[in-house]
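Reopening this ticket.

The earlier resolution said the output was attached, but the attachment link was broken on my side. Pasting everything inline this time so it's all in one place.
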Amino acid sequence: MRKMLKWLFILLAVLSIPVGFFIKHEHAVFFWDKIPSIEAIFGVIGAFLLILATAILTSFAQKKEDFYD
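Inline output:
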C-alpha cells in the first residue's frame, strides 16, 4: 500500500509540470511568474536540496558506537 501511494505521489508530481504550461499568468508581477511550471520546478529543486542537506548534516552529527563508553 505504501509503495503504491509513493508512486501515486511521484506520478502526480510529474504530471503537475506539463499542467503548468496550460495555465496563463497574465498579470505576473515578477519575471519568474511568467515561466511555466516554475512552482513545480522550484518544489522539486527545493526537495532535492533538503535531502542533500540532510545527508551532509547527518554525516557530521553521527557519533561512533563507543562514543559514550
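Reporter confirms the inline version is readable. Helices lie at 2-19, 38-61. The chain has one domain: 2-61.
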